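Box 3.1. Reading complex inputs
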Amino acid sequence: MTNTAPITQDVLTIPRKLPEGPVNIVGLTRDRLREVLIAHGTPEKQARMRVNQIWQWVYGWGVRDFAEMTNLSKAYRAELAEKFVIQIPEIVNREISADGTRKYLVRIAGGHEVEVVYIPETDRGTLCISSQVGCTLTCSFCHTGTQKLVRNLTAGEIIGQVMLARDDLDEWPTKGQGFGTEGPRLLSNIVLMGMGEPLYNFDNVRDAMKIAMDGEGIALSRRRITLSTSGIVPEIHKTAEEIGCMLAVSFHATTDEVRDKLVPINRKWNIAALLEALRDYPKASNSERITFEYVMLKDVNDSDEDARRLVKLIKGIPAKINLIPFNEWPGAPHQRSDWERIERFADIVYKAGYASPIRTPRGEDIMAACGQLKSATERARKSRKDIEAEAGL
Ligand code: SF4
């Protein structure tokens, strides 16, 4: 579905002057789209209506060609096609696991690549999307953590992952008829658990998720979107206030000594600071629990004492605990805990009153399981400044 026009610059992250060349409208917020339409000649009094119309075509029905937008005049469609493009990242590789999990390797501006994973289940279909090329952080159990940060993804490149997956799943509703909100959806949930720390790319993640939640387009409920952070304390409340989605925390240890090694950002905001931010997280309630992700590492963080300490630490926080059997990757410094150990750990947590599902590893055969993602894009000789300039960041 993606058109082959040269990769254009997203305007969102560029100072307000308009860039040379066609503008990619994917990733623009409604307000910004209105601004650029007016700046490119759309009469101000029509602009809000034009935004609604274009929005429905692009995010409601998955249209990538202005010529198909039949409720716009031919002349206006031609004008739009001259000044704008509708561009999303390109799938360069697609693997399907024996368990139905799909892994996409997608290319973005500058030729960089990120991985995206679709996990089908009986009652839902979850898309795990990336927010950075590589990662700012270096969590020891995570394959992405071995890939230096190349750059943040733009809002267009983040929401573009949802759009390319809908293309691949053929899940756009029939043009002109509703937005597919009725009936089961193949892509019903989004988790920001792919490559990168989403809270180190807050603005672009926020704008992209706002687009995903917009009722005139992809129309995903905020409760079906989960943002996972390793613990960027100052940005946590903003997630509730400005995005409003569900929150997950890469917790993984019950002492600072161990968490400093597994999740090095703990040296900046330790367990106490993180729990304090979560204790008064504006959106947390019994119906909207914070998910504590806990990777099960053999003889590192999987003792009975760890389990008991974990439930003591999170006492008073509306929480659920996701136990993640570690998914090994080449050169990984850890091993997965034995299943008996994982079940024993889950039992202690469960008896303490916490739902503690053990996450079933999915897509292991295609290196698509949690923590296995990594793209070949290495930060080459180019400086970060060059790379970000390339992508208009
Ligand atoms: S777990 Fe998340 S924050 Fe940590 S290195 Fe991996 S991608 Fe980055």
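In summary: Residues 90-391 form a domain with the TIM Barrel fold (CATH 3.20.20.70).
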